[in-house]
Specification:
Elements lengths: L18 H9 L7 H19 L2 H8 L4 H17 L1 H12 L1 H24 L19 H31 L9 H33 L2 H21 L6 E2 L5 H14 L26 E3 L33 H18 L2 H7 L5 H8 E2 L1 E3 L2 E2 L7 H25 L8 H32 L10 E4 L4 H25 L5 H29 L17 H24 L6 E3 L2 H5 L7 E2 L10 E4 L4 E4 L1
Parallel strand pairs: 1-8, 3-6
Antiparallel strand pairs: 2-7, 4-5, 9-10
Helix pairs in contact: 2-8, 2-9, 3-4, 4-7, 4-17, 5-6, 5-7, 5-17, 6-7, 6-9, 7-17, 8-9, 8-14, 8-16, 11-16, 12-17, 12-18, 14-16, 15-16, 15-18, 16-17
Length: 614
């Protein structure tokens, strides 16, 4: 499942180390001691990524002189590509490379992209000359844009290896702890993960953005590049402490084999008793380390892949994988299919939040940004309020909301990820709704001051009117994104958790691409005279209509999400006893599951976070 290193498969011969020796070696691997290395790595990565991209709309419009809509679409396309590549990275990690090496190599590629863009900001020939007087600004040439796109492509490829693997790699370090506490530990890990990411983003939005706006883009992009180098070193230093799960082969191959086998047996009669379907514990050992998936009654057409016929075995008695799949492998495919409707509901949430780094920053640039005396807040620093509200919400959730819920509830349970995501979606609706009214107030202030035709003149209205929409967005992210990560990690098959986390980033990718499509269509079909999203003068636009249009779409999306959660079926998991899990850890920290059977059957209830015997 996780990073792979060349080593021999653990054997059950008498030469194997005694159980107590294996137990002592296991205790030296994984656990909370690995968290400083993993979280510090991702903190550095998030600091670099946020400092690199949060103010990029300013770089594109003020340095490369791109029109606003083109710059907005460039950023959302880049964000979409960067969020799409984790699917490839997750498959590479789960199939053969392992998460450790995927993270290490991806970090280097990401750093190369940052270095290229930093050099383009320093060298004169790689950017157009500054604007002079009232003359039209010279836009970047084709060659200069190609340097930009190549740099962004490298960072997108690097993101593909980092994003799906770092989260899952960290959570897996806690997976070998006491089984009844595993749910709480992984839930807390996701909270801490997102909290640390928030702190890193906060530092980047204050320090790096200030350097970019007041010192220069060379240092403004160079600082994140240096920090990214530190993240690689810190991650490698933790190598002796990590637990490594062996990659179990391409999950896409297994899923395809299930589909092909089911099609080949489409005329076969499905038995009434699910116990008559094919099961092979030894065959599934490497992909069922902590437990085995049980048969479910959903998507019965796929069960045909596990129907046993005479033609399904070789002369040596081995099953033909393209004709016969085990129940566990069939249920892997079912588990992924079950998550898709809920997963799809998060796409529009990303579309709604994408304006925080584009149109909202352009709004802030036109407003009075004075804080103390002559000190002016950089427009992109307004995202600080998103991060602050996110951090406060995460802290209150863990230390106030959950304890109160457990104290006064009829039974001590934590809020499920479905409730958490639903709350976040509701807050996101409120965020875009409020944003529309703030835009109306901003334009009214411009009209009263006679500045509607002067897009570069500061409007006499405080930039702090934008705080509500930024803060509500942070609260929404604290609920929705953390719940979404926990949902995908928990409901994905254990051998496909990198793939599951990659789905989180694919939703972000599709959300950004959808934002590009919506912005392009709105810009094209809302006329020239009163265009909702004009290229050069936001004061004459109808940005509030765009916000309210997105609000309406989100209301419909929330209704769809509620329906999906009401009919969702959790994956049925037979939990392996703790001693069976421990027996799979060798002295090098690699994890395998012994071929011995499971002595006790337990089904984990995701709502309660505990296992019950059956």
């Amino acid at each position: 499942m996780l990073p792979c290193f060349p080593s021999k498969v653990r054997s059950s011969s008498p030469e194997s180390p005694p159980a107590n020796t294996m137990e002592s070696k296991e205790k030296r691997r994984g656990g909370l001691r690995t968290m400083p290395f993993i979280l510090a790595t991702d903190v550095c990565d998030r600091f670099a990524a946020t400092g690199f991209s949060s103010n990029m709309i300013t770089y594109l419009t003020q340095v490369l002189h791109m029109p606003m809509v083109q710059a907005s679409n460039t950023l959302t396309n880049f964000a979409g590509t960067a969020a799409l590549t984790p699917l490839i990275g997750g498959l590479i990690a789960d199939s053969f490379a392992g998460r450790f090496w995927t993270i290490a190599v991806a970090s280097v590629i990401y750093q190369l992209g940052m270095l290229c863009l930093t050099l383009s900001a320093i060298l004169r020939g790689t950017r157009p000359p500054p604007c002079s007087g009232q003359q039209p600004c010279q836009e970047a040439s084709t060659g200069q844009l190609w340097i930009l796109y190549f740099s962004l492509l490298l960072t997108s490829i690097g993101s593909g290896g980092l994003r799906p693997c770092v989260v899952a790699f960290g959570a897996d370090q806690l997976d070998l702890s006491k089984s009844k506490k595993t749910k709480d530990k992984t839930s807390n890990f996701f909270n801490w993960y997102y909290f640390c990411m928030g702190v890193a983003s906060l530092l980047a939005l204050t320090l790096v953005v200030y350097i970019q706006d007041n010192v220069g883009w060379g240092w403004g992009l160079g600082v994140p590049t240096i920090v990214m180098t530190i993240s690689v070193v810190v991650f490698l230093l933790g190598y002796p402490l990590y637990v490594f799960y062996r990659p179990s082969g391409s999950p896409l191959t297994r899923l395809t084999q299930v589909v092909v086998a089911a099609i080949r047996k489409r005329s076969a009669i499905r038995p009434n008793d699910g116990n008559e379907l094919y099961q092979n514990r030894e065959m599934d050992a490497s992909i069922s380390i902590t437990g085995r998936l049980l048969h479910s009654d959903q998507y019965k057409c796929l069960d045909r892949a596990a129907i046993i016929t005479e033609r399904d075995f070789t002369e040596g008695g081995n099953p033909k994988p393209w004709r016969l799949s085990t129940v566990h492998r069939v249920e892997e495919l079912k588990s992924i299919i079950r998550t898709l409707p809920v997963w799809a509901a998060t796409i529009l949430l990303v579309t709604a939040s994408s304006h925080q780094n584009t149109f909202s920053i352009q709004q802030a640039r036109t407003m009075d940004r004075h804080l103390v005396g002559s000190f002016k807040i950089p427009p992109a620093t307004m995202n600080v309020f998103t991060i602050l509200s996110l951090l406060i919400t995460l802290a209150l959730y863990d230390h106030v909301i959950v304890p109160l819920r457990e104290k006064y509830a009829s039974k001590p349970v934590k809020w499920s990820y479905f409730r958490r995501m639903g709350i976040g979606m509701g807050v996101s609706i409120l965020s875009t709704f409020v944003a529309g009214f703030v835009e109306v107030k901003r334009k009214n202030a411009a009209a009263q001051a006679g500045l509607l035709s002067q897009p570069r003149t500061t409007i006499p209205i405080s930039v702090f009117w934008l705080i509500p929409q930024y803060s509500l967005h942070g609260i929404s992210e604290a609920f929705t994104h953390v719940g979404h990560l926990q949902f995908l990690y928990d409901q994905s098959p254990e051998s496909m958790r990198s793939f599951g986390i990659a789905l989180f980033w694919i939703a972000i990718s599709l959300g950004n691409y959808l934002s590009t499509l919506v912005v392009s269509l709105v810009h094209k079909y809302t006329g020239k005279e009163h265009n909702w999203l004009p290229n050069h003068n936001l004061n004459k636009g109808r940005l509030e209509y765009y916000y309210w249009f997105i609000t309406g779409l989100q209301i419909v999306n929330l209704g769809y999400y509620i329906i999906c959660t009401l009919f969702y079926t959790y994956k049925p998991l037979e939990v392996a006893p703790l001693e069976n899990q421990a027996n799979g850890v060798d002295g090098n920290g690699h994890v395998e599951l012994a071929a011995s059977g499971v002595n006790e059957r337990e089904i984990r209830d995701p709502e309660v976070g505990a296992a019950r015997s059956v």
